[in-house]
Every structure is written in C-alpha cells, then in structure tokens.
Amino acid sequence: xxxxxxxxxxxxxxxxxxxxxxxxxxxxxxxxxxxxxxxxxxxxxxxxxxxxxxxxxxxxxxxxxxxxxxxxxxxxxxxxxxxxxxxxxxxxxxxxxxxxxxxxxxxxxxxxxxxxxxxxxxxxxxxxxxxxxxxxxxxxxxxxxxxxxxxxxxxxxxxxxxxxxxxxxxxxxxxxxxxxxxxxxxxxxxxxxxxxxxxxxxxxxxxxxxxxxxxxxxxxxxxxxxxxxxxxxxxxxxxxxxx
Length: 243
Hints:
- The protein has 243 residues and is α/β, with parallel strands linked by helices.
- The chain has two domains: 3-122, 3-Layer(aba) Sandwich (Rossmann fold); 141-236, Orthogonal Bundle (Arc Repressor Mutant, subunit A), CATH 1.10.10.
- The protein has eight helices and twelve strands.
- The protein has helices spanning 15-27, 38-47, 64-74, 88-96, 109-122, 167-178, 186-193, 204-216; strands at residues 7-11, 31-35, 52-56, 79-83, 101-104, 141-144, 147-150, 155-158, 161-162, 184-185, 226-229, 233-236.
- The strands form three sheets. It has a five-stranded parallel sheet with strand order 2-1-3-4-5, sandwiched between helices. A four-stranded antiparallel sheet has the order 6-7-8-9, with helices on one face. A three-stranded antiparallel sheet has the order 10-12-11.
- Strand 3 (52-56), helix 3 and strand 4 form a beta-alpha-beta unit.
- Helix 6 (167-178) packs across helix 8.
- It starts with 6 loop residues before the first strand and ends in a 7-residue tail after the last strand.
- Residues 125-139 and 196-201 have low confidence and may be disordered.
C-alpha cells in the first residue's frame, strides 16, 4: 500500500503523544487523525474511514480493550495497541481482544512505523461487493471440508456464510492450510506470521488457535481440523480426521 494513501487514526488521551505521532507519521507521508477518546473516535467514523488504528489502553470513559473488542466486532480494521502497561499479561489480553500488534510505552517512533507497515502489508481490505464466494473460482483459494479460504479477498467462508477473522487469525489459518499434516511448533508459527516481538512464554499463538477453533470446529474441545501435537505444537488436518 502506498504510504501517501494510508490514513491512520490515533486514539490516545495524551495530547503531547498525539501531536508527536501526528507530526512524525505525516512526515512519513501518511494522513493522520487524532482523537482523545471513544466518543471522538465514534464521531470520526460517522463520516470517515481509516486504514489502521493506533489505540491506547488507558483512556477516559471506555477503555482501550473495550474499544478493540468493539472495533473487531464491527469493522475490518487492524489495531496496534500502545500502552504504558508493557507486561506480558496486558499484551496477551490485548492480542486476545483482536489487536494485530502491541507496543509498550515509551517506544521509538521508527519502531512504530515499522510495525505499522508490517501490519498493513498483512492486511488487505475485503471486497465488500463480491458475489457468492463460490461463483469466482479464479481467485487464489484453499478449500477444506465445507470451508473456503479466499486469499485474494482475504475472506473465509463456511459454505456461503462468511466467518469473520481478525488479520492475525486469517494469517495463522492460511499458514496452517499451506502446511497440511505437518506438525508446526509455536516458534515456527510465530516466525511465519512475523511482525511480533515475543518472549519465551509468549502465548499469542495459543490464543489465536483457541479463537480459530471456536470458529471452525464443531467441538472446540475435541478439534478435528487444528490438532494439538503435544510437545511440538499444532497440526492442520484438512479432512477433519483427528486420528
């Protein structure tokens, strides 16, 4: 995506940080709008759109985690969380709410820029005017059981019903589908997804696996498609056979 066409929305109650981010990202050729809370964010979205949201966790009124949950439930927008709470627990909660990346304050603006570009590279807006997903077989797709993963439109369907995935969930499912019947370790999956700093106890892959299972497995506690391989990681079984 051309940086000059990128519109970033910054949601943070610190006016100094908003000004710094706006000035820096504009210097990088991006369009930037800043708001201080969820009320101003909602007013912005009435008549405007953005390609990515930079979201603080500690906000007056509705907090950042609640906003992230609401955004992911209603809009197809990637989110990068900024927060003074840099511990692993807060990071895991943020990713579990659907955030695409998490950066602790204080941070280097150049690192934030790199993360913005990485998230945008992984995120492709869906074609909202497309016909039935099974009418156009020219798209790059992966099919298994009753499911279809459309890599061109970055969308996922069960029969003709769309299943909404976050950007991270989509990328993880794409990787699993491209490595059927192969046990993949958590570290290998993190390397293939890219874009995240990780610690030895990083659970973001496990969180995404749990969310994916809830969306595609008839019994998430007894998964048929995404199997746990104890001591290694996970294996995707496209025919749904867990044995």
